[in-house]
Description:
Elements: E1 2-10, H1 18-32, E2 39-46, E3 49-56, E4 59-60, E5 63-71, H2 76-85, E6 93-96, E7 99-106, E8 109-110, H3 111-124, E9 146-153, E10 156-157, E11 174-175, E12 177-179, E13 188-190, H4 194-203, H5 210-228, E14 231-232, H6 236-243, E15 250-255, H7 265-276, E16 279-282, E17 288-296, H8 305-329, E18 345-347, E19 351-352, H9 353-367, H10 375-384, H11 392-396, H12 403-411, H13 416-424, H14 439-458, H15 472-486, H16 492-507, H17 516-525, E20 530-533, E21 538-544, E22 551-553, H18 554-573, H19 578-586, H20 593-607, H21 610-633, H22 648-659, H23 662-668, H24 672-680, H25 683-692, H26 700-718
Parallel strand pairs: 9-11
Antiparallel strand pairs: 1-3, 1-9, 2-3, 4-8, 5-7, 6-7, 9-10, 12-13, 14-16, 15-17, 16-17, 18-19, 20-21, 21-22
Helix pairs in contact: 1-3, 5-6, 7-8, 9-10, 9-14, 9-16, 10-13, 10-14, 12-13, 13-14, 14-15, 14-16, 15-18, 16-18, 18-19, 19-20, 20-24, 21-25, 21-26, 22-25, 22-26, 23-24
Amino acid sequence: MAALFLELFSEEIPARMQPRAAEDLARLTAEALSGLSPTNIQTWYGPRRIALAADVNAQVAAVSSTERGPRANAPEQALQGFLRKHRATREQVRQEGDYWVLEKQADAIAATDLIAGAVPGVLRRFPWSKSMRWGGTSHFTWVRPLRRIVCLLDGQVVPFDLRDGTDDGHGLTSGNLTEGHRFHAPGAFEVSSAADWTTKLREHRVLVDAADRKRVIAEGIARIAAEKSITIVDDPGLLDEVAGLVEWPVPMAGRIAGEHMDLPPEIRQVSMRVNQRYFAARSGNGEAAPWFIFAANIDADDGGVAIVAGNERVLRARFSDARHFWDLDRKARLESRVPSLDHVTYHAKLGTQGQRVGRLRRLAELIAPQVDAGEALADRAAELAKADLVTGMVGEFPELQGVMGRYYALHDHEDSYVADAIRDHYAPRGPSDPVPTAPVSIAVALADKLDQLACFFAIDERPTGAGDPYALRRAALGVIRIIRENGLRLKLLLLLDLAVTAARHAAGEHAATLTDERAMRALNDNPGATVLRGADAIARVTRPVPGTDLHIDLLAFEILEFLAERLRVQLRGEGARHDVLAAVFAAGADDDITRLLRRTEAVSAFLGQDDGANLLAAYRRAANILRIEERKDGPHTDAPDSSLLAEPAEEALHRSVIAGLAIGILVHDEKYAEAMAEMAKLRGPLDAFFETVTVNAPEPKMRRNRLRLLNQVRTTMDRVADFSRIEG
Length: 728
């Protein structure tokens, strides 16, 4: 095979775009050169280049094939159309049986020719998220001005250019010249292969491998931290970004001026990260240390003294700006900013942040007594939760929303629980972040996430396989984690119904409506449901809550199912029986997540025992028989006639089923261990029934009676979980 090497050298590529660009280069090149069967594809990316190496065949082999055409007795026009389609002549076809047959011959294509023809097209359609044109009149675009193209096959240049008709493609042509470090080794030099390129660029002060740059940076800042007896705030995302900003990383440390150490540490850290890409540090006691660590892109002759001084000077200016916002924001009380939220749009279809605050206050008040939080404190925290969005500091650093609200609330002498709730109501922001644990914080955090889910479901902006632009999966996972990790007992359906009602009101004319077809489907899928018609369309469907007189908006049930699906995904990630959760939820759509999980754990434990595994097998056998027979003359839902129980085994099973009626009561009372023990008693009689009794007896009455008995078994077990959903 031949060795292909391709480098695209440009002005500085944004760090966040580099990994995806390397992936796209590998994918597009593999597709364009598929005829050469590329293997061992390797990519590199950095501030000024993306590159690829691969092994390819030396040529695309010649191929002979035949293509059957129209019938021999078909009109002449049919044959002529076939010839035009394949760009063939009459002399190239022959009659074979009743058909015309075309002999096709594809000549061999040299790898050099295929590459030269394919790569320009790859570059012209490269999918940068943002790209630009520069200089001249060419319409060719790249993320930043493209300066050089290296394209080699076994060390020899594959010649091509980027001309496209009258477009000169900026005069870019392929060659074997690249460039090293902008300051340490300016100027072009030749390369002959991927290995030669890697070696020579290192000599010219460029580390081409992002992993090498990350390692150098990580080891350097760790060494500095050890020398200064500090620890570096862990920030993998920042490490990735910095590795994409420097070609020859040289870690250094600068000192933070004492007059800025009284700023809240979050302000300093965010300002350093967002504006300067600096790493923050902590002292041995965990408090902020007066140091910052950064990676320079040059190995200075003076050991970095001037570079450090320049960065310290820039940071002083950044912190002075932050102090301006810090001092200015504290001149106005947080509560005085709440009216300004009426002029901040939450979403074009959902009104303002001020309207949202009203919804949060109502929800937080309702949640508060269920989580042992004071209603007045929860209401106050919800009222102030979004107020820092209109402060100067959060306007400058949106990452500090909530954090600054807490500081400003404490400055205003608000209750500490209120201040903490303002900060914590966004939590958890990610899967590894801690959840709120204080009752007031829990109430407001749940209100925030339930309102978010209700609002975007109300305007039919649900997550899809293509994306989740409003982070609804994260919101759902946040609700689940808050409930799970705090062991809360919440009636989510009622809260969701209230949230959905408020969300529909906020959405107004933008609220999603149901077509007649969807409404009919909803009615068929939800026995007892009621259709509510608006002036122009079917507005919504309500569904009864079993065992109550309540009718809940169907949208609330759909959000509950969405939460259950997120919980199932979470359990799967934990290695737990997510299929059991789906089975338990299907048995009753329980809106108490803590209870749902306890019941799931009990069923999982039961299925892990011999009685459970064998009973599940017998359940499946019964369900299969019923499914087949119910197609003939079902359903067989009536109670069995005890006078038709002829065999001892069916009499014993009937007695066990009657005794098993207690299972539903035990489940209702949350006595799951006792319910599992009662269900285990069905195993022996059910096994004996299948061993000695012929279900499809020749007597029709006997057959129907036995099917009714099996249906009772299925119904009894389904009170615990829908065992048909259990996998394996």
